[in-house]
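Quick review question:
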């Protein structure tokens, strides 16, 4: 104990030479000992420091790619564009915003020509891959803008719309779509699906589908894989048999290949049980 006390008085670490002595009465310690110098915030002279300069990119934080003065990027080249709207101040100063070289950021196109310029650069009509996940569509502008874009996707083969709180897509048509991801939305029925005559892969995990109404509309499609786990309908007795009975051409359900048992007739519908409370 005395040796340990003297060691502490000298400011040495328990991992000093004395700590590694061998013997039956010596206790070894492997805990590291570190001295950290504490600076009081009252002695901080940060108020005398120069302010942190703003990044040059700050002027572009609310700009859309088709707003930029010099831009040749098309929507079909973007992997996962975000649908967002800047503050009102951005719209007011649209034609006045400049970069660090005092050059104007945005183009000088006005009126309908501005919308035409936007549509030409977006070029969603020729996009074969479109991904709009997790858009947080709480603002009316964002919802209407997504609808505008979806209405133009006439050649898309791969479409990702997961995590968007979507409730109804029945008004849209994707004639070339082969892969459609609708996971984590609020769809309550297969009748809310868009028209997808060429779909081969459809995933609808974690929606709110409660029955099989409308599933037969997919019978005329070349659908091979379907994912429905996380929907109330997936908890019904005979769930797999019912799906394969409606879609005999389906090969995989929830990632599992069609089994011999899946070809058996589904069990009869159960009448909901009830009780009388007097």
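Suggested answer, residue by residue:
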């Amino acid at each position: 104990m005395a040796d340990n006390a003297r060691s502490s008085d000298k400011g040495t670490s328990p991992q000093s030479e004395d700590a590694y002595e061998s013997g039956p009465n010596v206790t070894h310690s492997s805990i590291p000992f570190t001295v950290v110098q504490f600076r009081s915030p009252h002695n901080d002279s940060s108020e005398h420091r120069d302010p942190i300069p703003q990044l040059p990119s700050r002027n572009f934080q609310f700009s859309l790619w088709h707003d930029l003065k010099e831009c040749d990027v098309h929507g079909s080249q973007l992997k996962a564009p975000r649908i967002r709207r800047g503050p009102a101040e951005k719209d007011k100063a649209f034609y006045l915003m400049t970069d660090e070289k005092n050059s104007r950021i945005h183009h000088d196109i006005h009126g309908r020509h501005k919308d035409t310029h936007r549509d030409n650069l977006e070029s969603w009509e020729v996009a074969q891959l479109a991904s709009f996940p997790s858009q947080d569509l709480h603002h009316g502008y964002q919802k209407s803008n997504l609808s505008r874009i979806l209405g133009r996707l006439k050649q898309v083969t791969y479409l990702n719309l997961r995590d968007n709180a979507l409730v109804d897509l029945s008004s849209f048509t994707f004639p070339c779509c082969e892969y459609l991801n609708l996971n984590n939305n609020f769809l309550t029925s297969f009748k809310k699906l868009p028209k997808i005559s060429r779909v081969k892969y459809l995933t609808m995990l974690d929606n709110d589908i409660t029955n099989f109404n409308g599933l037969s509309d997919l019978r005329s499609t070349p659908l091979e894989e379907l994912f429905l786990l996380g929907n109330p309908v997936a908890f019904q007795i005979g769930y797999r048999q019912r799906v394969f009975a409606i879609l005999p051409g389906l090969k995989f359900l929830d990632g599992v290949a069609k089994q011999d048992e899946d070809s058996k007739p589904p069990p009869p519908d159960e009448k909901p049980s009830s009780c009388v409370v007097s």
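Why it works: The longest helix spans residues 111-122. The first strand starts at residue 129 and ends at 131.
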